Amino acid sequence: MKLIVGLGNPGKKYEHTRHNMGFDVIDLFSELAQIDIDKESFKGLVGRGKVFDEDVFLLKPQTFMNLSGESVREIVSYFKIKIEDIIVIYDDMAIAPGRIRLRPSGSSGGHNGIQNIIDNLGTKDIKRIRVGIGEPTYNSIDYVLSKPSKEERVLIDEAIVDATNALKDILKDNFDKAMTKYN
Question: Is 19 a catalytic residue?
């Protein structure tokens, strides 16, 4: 059983902002995998289905970014999901738009959403796909909560497709193989 978590902020106001890259990847992946994310549970929106004969949960926490770990902890606890079976997708300012980076573990790098998940699960050993949004040229909070420029959007959309393909490769093969291919 795998849990794939996309981080973002709920509501129309935040749709397709830089901080909602995780939601955008989950939305595309759910469409391709034909998994509806329509159940409100575990402080989030949840979908469940099969991908390559693997039982998969898709989760979009609705707690707002900084409390994402509460939602993740609840579903992990309820279904007894192993830490090694969790993949978290989120935005990263340290990576250029259009690029993704897969990591098997590590610190939060200053990202409050992943830090809250680390705190709630008690481990840094969480697999992750980071979607590049680039360095801000102004206040970082305003930057992540704003929508990318038209030029950046093209690059970010490519990264969303790459992250979705990486998820398929992880489920088909394994994380290490996907990491070699996409990093």
Answer: yes
β-strand pairing of 2-6 with 86-92 = parallel
Q: Are 106 and 124 in contact (CB under 8 A)?
A: yes
Task: Please pick, among 19, 60, 127, 128, the residue that the annotation labels catalytic.
Answer: 19
Residue count of the chain:
183
Report how far residue 179's alpha carbon sits from residue 116's, in angstroms, rounded to the nearest whole number: 24
Q: What is the pTM of this model?
A: 0.97
pLDDT, tens digit (0-9, with 9 covering 90-100), for 6-46: 999 999 999 999 999 999 999 999 999 999 999 999 999 99
pLDDT of 166 reads: 98
Amino acid of residue 69: G
The per-residue pLDDT of the chain, averaged, comes to 97
> Amino acid identity of 55?
D
In whole angstroms, give the CA distance from residue 89 to residue 65. 12
Closest to 77 (Cα-Cα) out of 121, 43, 18: 121
Among 155, 161, 181, 158, CA closest to 169? 181
Nearest to 18 by CA among 76, 77, 97: 97
Can you list the positions of beta strands (E) in 37-123?
39-41, 44-51, 54-61, 86-92, 100-103
